Structure formats: structure tokens, C-alpha cells
Amino acid sequence: MSIEVKVPLLPESVSEATIATWYKKAGDSVKRDENIVDLETDKVMLEVPAPADGVLKEIIKNTGSSVHAEEVIAVIEAVDARTSLPTPKPTVEKTKQSPITAPLPMSPSVRRAAAEHEVDLSQVTGTGKKGRITKENVVAATSTIDMNRDARPEKRVPMTRIRARIAERLLEVSQNTAMLTTFNEINMAQVMDIRHRYREKFEKTYNVRLGLMSFFVRACVEALKRSPIVNASIDGNDIIYHGYYDIGVAVSTERGLVVPVLRDVDAMTTAEIEIKIAEYAEKARLGKLTLEEMQGGTFTITNGGVFGSLMATPLLNAPQCAILGMHKIQERPIAENGQVVVRPMMYVALSYDHRLVDGKESVTFLVNIKELLEDPARLILEV
Predict the structure, then answer these.
(1) What is the pLDDT of residue 100?
(2) Catalytic annotation present for 68
(3) Which residue out of 193, 327, 354, 375 is catalytically annotated?
(4) CATH superfamily of domain region 173-381
(5) Nearest-CA neighbor of 298 among 241, 237, 348, 362?
(6) Catalytic residue list contains 358
(7) Among 28, 146, 264, 358, which one carries the catalytic annotation?
(8) Of these four, 14, 153, 337, 365, which has the most CB atoms within 10 Å of its CB?
């Protein structure tokens, strides 16, 4: 019995998908609920499982094809679970032996020219009498080789749906917002000292590493409480003040940047934040993030420091009005109490929509982040 494999219902606001990867080919056996193909949308990857045990009879939509919900993409020839899957019959290929012909003789000038220019004579077509290779043939082959050596290879491939969507959203941000960026630097000595002292005990207690991101997430929540406008967004001519704190954490994957959202972060402990970030990072790596996990968010944090970035301008994640950029921690000499000392410093950047956030508010927000991280006890005391 033939069973159709169809595109599942796509997430809301997603109209079509692209066949990303077939894990089976026609003639392969499949098991019920086994993932046989991945579909790429402009937001998430979707797995399509086999609806029954059987053999993949036909692939209707090949890799790279655009498909819509409920569209048939393959056909499975189902088999009774009580019977064994059919064994493909081996194919026997008959080979024809080509007659062996002796190579035609070549003149010394041809051999010398071939040796001088490193030409493989077996790859040269002769135009002389009875197909003999001439010196002119070798010279022509030499020109072709030189042209290939001088050529600069290029490869043209279509954008993935996610990369195209990222490009589209970034262009929208640059055209539809009045984005500015303010910078500051943070002495990370206190945070690094806490991580050094409690890293092992924290990991043993909660089975997750103590990273930097949880400190920044908690500092951002406290700073957002003091500057509600930074946690707001614009809808037409209205300002929407969000009474909750959903923080997006940008995660880089092979397919592009994705931003899963930590919900109600003000109610989460440091361990819960780290556990959720680790879970999101693993799901992002495997392409398993759901649309719901990436929707919404009132503020975003991105960390270019993991790639070595010392300073950069992050782009807004619309419709949010602000984003914090973390960067590489680097030891630098600074003035402290009248003395020059070396401290682990990090440049931070806050990009914001100037239509909503004033310069004073943006600077105050970033200074609050700086003060909270340079004296982490304030995060506990909320002062």
C-alpha cells in the first residue's frame, strides 16, 4: 500500500518551506516516526517523520525545492510490521571491454615541449595524421593550463531561507529605525573572581557551568526595571511598556544567528538561567528550536566576544528598541585610585532606537549595567 508523505502544517506566518536535507533515497527502507527529511523555513527547521514502516518508493520534491503545507513530497510503500522489509535485488552491471590500442608514436619535439610545460600527454587530443599529437597541440594545451592556473574560482549558491530572512530583517531595521549606539567599559574582575571561586561547586550542585551570560542577564533585568522605556517597543504611534522581562540571547549557528527567548527572567535564579541557556544552545546547534521559543522578547543580549570581537555595533532586534552587545574580555592598564593597574576589561555597546530612547536614558542604562557588574553584590541586594 502506498502512503503519501506530506509537508506538515507550517507555523503561523510561515507560508512555505524548502527541502533542506533528505536522509533517505528512493529504495531505502524506513521505520515509522523515523526522520526522513528536514524542511527549512525562514525561522525554524522542521523534521518530517515516516508515517509507516516500509520502503521509500519515490521522492517527489528534491533538495532545494520550495513546498507548501500539506503538499506531497514523497511516497512510501508500506509493509506489514509482521513481515520483513523487501530486500532490494542486487543489480548486475555488465562491463564491456574496450579494445586496447597501442599509443601512436610522438616526435622528440613533442615530448620535449610536454616535459618543459608539464603537460600530461594522455589528456591531449592529437590533430595530426591518424590522430598523432603535434607540437601545436602541446602549445595549445599549455595555454589552457595557464588560463586555469590564472583563473579565480567562484561559486554561486542561493541564500538559505534563514539567511535571506536575516538579511531582510536587518535591512528593515536600518531603514525603519533611528538607531544609535553608546559604549562603555566594565571591569570584570569581581565577576571573574566569583566564577573562579564558585565554578566547581556551582557545576556540581546544578550540573551546569557558571558562565558570564547569567550575570549580564540579571544585570540587564535590574537596569530595565530602572529604565522601563528601554524595555518598551513602538507600535505605530503608540509606546508599549512591557511589564515583564523576556530576554533574547543571540546564539550563532551554522545556519545563521537565532535568538531564543528567556521568559520572565526576573523570576529565574542564576542556575535556572544557565540551564535554559545551555538547553537553547544545544537545540540551536541541532536545529531543534521551535518558533515559540524564538518569538517575542523585550530586550536582547548578543555576545561577539566568543569570536574575539573587541568592539562592535549590534543591530536592533525589531520591534525591540534596544540591544546589548558584549565583547571580548582583555587585560588592559587602567587608572584606579591614582595608580595604573592591569584589569580584565570588557567593552560593551548599547544600540537603541532614538525615536523612543533618549541619549540620557541610554547612557544611564548602560552605566547601571556597569555598576551592577563591577559590584555584583548589588545584584543580590537589588540596590
Answers:
(1) 47
(2) no
(3) 354
(4) Chloramphenicol acetyltransferase-like domain (3.30.559.10)
(5) 241
(6) yes
(7) 358
(8) 365
